[in-house]
Amino acid sequence: MIASRKEFLSGFGLFVAFLVVLIILFFPIFKGQNALRYLDNLYNSISKGSAYYIPAVQEQVGKFAGESIIVTLKAANQKAAEQIAALFRSSDAEVIVTGTELKVKGDLGKILGNCLKDADAMYKNAGEQVSGKYGYDERRVLFNWWTAFKGMDKDLSGQKKFKEAKIVNLVQNKAVETSYNYYKVEAQKISDQPGTVIASLLFYVIYTLWYGFAILFMFEGWGLRLGH
Q1: Is residue 42 part of a domain?
Q2: 227 lies in some domain
């Protein structure tokens, strides 16, 4: 039994309109994309514009120039071991590969500096520079750097070289991961599209309230009430 037909129909009408708008949002009407994909790309672009940490990390890395390290790493397989070895050799480090194990001796500043050059190129979407440098997919290069640094962090910590482990971890998180995640995304600032950003945020708030009031009116029209 419906207690208030008018209130129930108002809520039902709001709910139907909510569903119609939801369906429209999934149509590719925003530059060939649906609204969710378009806004996701927009906010990824905006976040990339404020996540360029590489210059600041480079300053920290400079403090480790000339510091020699010796680490032992483990790769997932022999192919990965050879690929990772190429990264260190490009950093003027000595590498001995035995199966999937790598023993690396080199200048920590040079190793990290070389990685930052690759990460910077990837951040600027110049992946061809990285793939051309090593002869295989640029995303795999950054993944290998990430894997190598994970092993270096563990090995250096085991040697109680905590400052060295910390800078390796910093490059891994602030440069390698960031460049990998934002590769192929075009950086933007909020000031580039302020209208779209404000409109999308307002729409999100209004659309959420829209759904809430639709449910509220239907339930109250149905006769359900909240009480103390």
Answers
A1: yes
A2: no
